[in-house]
## 1
Amino acid sequence: MVDNASQQPENSPDVRELHEIPSVEVISRAAVMLLSAAAERLGLAEDEPERSPHRDLDEARRLITALAGLVTASGEYLGLHAAPLRDGLQSLQRAFREASAVPDAPGQGPGEKYTGPVY
């Protein structure tokens, strides 16, 4: 049995070629990865986010901004996936504002140059 996906034979039914994956799936997967990484950096996976060993607001800002750019730029192609991704993005933006010792002014938070102000 092969444990490592990179060691699977080319003709394995579990291996998908990149050209076979629809663009909406590639974009959605990238967005979910950014969303998950930002949530982790905000400490949202912990009962007490402010005590999370992974909490890093500077990193979270970067990830949220990248997510905002991706979701905004690709919104027209995401179809029914767009609304949940926008909702997740806004939740992260609000969580970032709450976690900040000195919250950014409306419109100046992470990704807000792409999404507009989030209150």
## 2
Amino acid sequence: MSERHQPNGGTVQGSSHDDVRRHNLSVVLRLVHRSGAASRSQLTKVTGLNRSTIAALVAELVELGLVMEREPNATNQVGRPSPIVSVSEQVVALAVNPEIDAVTIGIVGLDGQVHRRVRYPTDRSPSVVEAVNIAAAVIDGMRGELETTFKVVGIGVAVPGLVRAHDGLVRHAPHLGWVDEPLAEMLEAATGYPVLAANDASLGAMAERFFGAGKGITDLIYLNGGASGIGGGMIVGGVPAGGVAGYAGEFGHTRVSDSDRVDSAGIRGTLEAEVTRRELLEVLGLAGADADELEQALLASTDPLVRAEVDRQIDHLAVALAGAINILNPQLVVLGGFLAALLAVDPDRLRSAVAALSLGSAFGSVRLSAAELGSNLLMIGAAELAFEGLLDDPAGLTAENAGSAD
């Protein structure tokens, strides 16, 4: 039985030369996908594979249409420079994020670039049928561009609720009113593309880890604040912590006060009950806004009522963050959605409030950061879900199935 080397220095047993080759294709594609363009010599060093093997693997990935090679910029180094390998700009995934006030659809490249993001507002929470119809209609409107310009791998859906991992069944999205809805199956039937779905905050944690504030971090907590409330994701020891059924990270249901306010689960005094996007919009006099627009409005406001509401929400957020830091001892806490806006308005107040409730040793090693990916975060996270099968087995992508929804 043969051995396959991994970038972390370990080995994986393979039953055949073809298994080894497919594994190594995955290793190389993941490296250039998540770490950016690299020279062949850099890939040789990181993987531990020899130069001829890397050359053959890169050539196959080029043939599959997944990566490109170019000559490096001119340097003064002696000898022939090593070609630069980067992911193909044509390979994309579609991303969908249903919310209580909109369905957002995006085209995201294998390099993490969001080529297009369309936010389709709704005047009420869409049913699963309405969300699927909206997404399918927007995707149909993009069909000409998708079929002539890109190779579409599939669709990833970021859902504000509990999603069963193996089949994309939405077990419970309380703010949307969805219970046991076969979202992935319905969207696949409507579009013809393969569909995967997962919790939005878990996908946000993954996106920030690979493409945002969490690059190089092995232990982080991500909290997302959206129209549907607050969720979260955790990376522990470099591995996503999903729990036994994939439902871990529901920080929104952490109790932070003795008030009678209830959250979507009917629990009193929780983070989700006390810290809400709706109340920020109300005090600003806005009917709606995405995360970036909300942040700008809060920063621009001089209304003392706005500031009082921001301070109230920051103090409750600090209670939940301190508890998470004391329990999980992360290197980084990333705040996304409207929670990032609260951090932007008064970072000193939030840090001081968290420090006052945290163990000194734990707080001393943690950093609070806004999500770097902004309004594109869930698009990138959902696309990453769709890319996962390709990254696991690049050789499984053929010229016939790479860009067709048939």
